[in-house]
Amino acid sequence: MSENVSIRCGLIGCMGKMGQEIRDYFTTFGDRFVLEVDKGFINESDRPDVIIDFSNPVALDSTIELCKEYNSPLVIGTTGLNEENLARLKDLSKNVAVVQSYNFADGINIIREILEMFGRYFDNWDGAIVEIHHNQKKDAPSGTAIMLKNSLGRELPISSLRVGGVFGEHTIIFSNAGEVVRISHTALSRRAFAIGVRKAALFAIQAGKGFYSYRDVLRNSGNHCE
After folding, report:
1. Whose CA is closest to 125, among 177, 164, 196?
2. Which of 133, 149, 170, 185 is the catalytic position?
3. Where are the domains of the chain?
4. Does the pTM exceed 0.85?
5. How many whole angstroms separate alpha carbon 94 and alpha carbon 2?
6. Which residues contact 186 (CB under 8 A, 6 or more apart)?
7. Considering the domain 8-103+190-221 in this protein, what is its CATH number?
8. Does the active-site annotation cover 137?
9. Where are the strands (E) in the chain, listed by range?
10. Contacts for 118-123 with beta carbons within 8 Å, 24 or more apart?
């Protein structure tokens, strides 16, 4: 689907910082928010083509019910999801497309590809992950750090810092007796994530039912490593 097409969107967590960033970016394409939900607030004016959730795990039940009511695909970037939450999303994906990721930045997902393809070369090296986020982020370690660790398929210690207004920095460090290799990603603003969310929304609208990651979105657009 062309990036220039306009979308009717549902947005869960519409009053949050990420929700506001999504709104600001999407409206530059003429997208309309026909379903807006936040704590104690709901505004419905039309059927959404896709529902986007960047809120809180406690809102998941409501989000799933709205997806079922409108038969709308879901793009969800909520952090702090547990195994039960993920199982419920996978159950929803039997009926509609669900794109779930803890990070919608292209760069992070490209790094995941790199780690899966070349991480074995560092099997005999010491390794660690350092992640830094703003001081209002509640979960630690970040879902992104856990994704990166899982991409390597080995246990690594994760150090989490919560300082100031940092949008997100992740560094994977490998070291042996003679050298150090660092792979880093820095998000300069929330716009990096909003760009990916819109790509995921367009993907979800045209995808068949199923459970997808943002890497599926990248592969569909051709922006992936092979």
Report:
1. 177
2. 133
3. 8-103+190-221, 106-186
4. yes
5. 26
6. 168, 169
7. 3.40.50.720
8. yes
9. 8-12, 32-38, 41-44, 50-53, 74-76, 97-100, 126-133, 158-162, 169-175, 180-186, 210-212
10. 119/151, 119/152, 119/153, 119/154, 122/152, 122/174, 122/181, 123/154
Name the residue with tokens 């939900």.
Answer: 37
Which residues does 120 contact at the CB level (< 8 Å), separation at least 6?
none
H helices within 99-213, ranges in order?
106-118, 143-152, 191-206
Pair 204, 212: CB distance under 8 Å: yes
CA distance 43 to 52: 14
Q: What is the pLDDT along the chain (226 residues), one digit of tens a residue?
A: 667 789 999 999 999 999 999 999 999 999 999 999 999 899 999 999 999 999 999 999 999 999 999 999 999 999 889 999 999 999 999 999 999 999 999 999 999 999 999 999 999 999 999 999 999 888 899 999 999 999 999 999 999 999 999 999 999 999 999 999 999 999 999 999 999 999 999 999 999 999 999 999 998 876 544 3
According to CATH, the topology of domain 106-186 is Dihydrodipicolinate Reductase; domain 2 (3.30.360)
224 is catalytic: no
Of the residues 68, 94, 137, 170, only one is catalytic, namely: 137
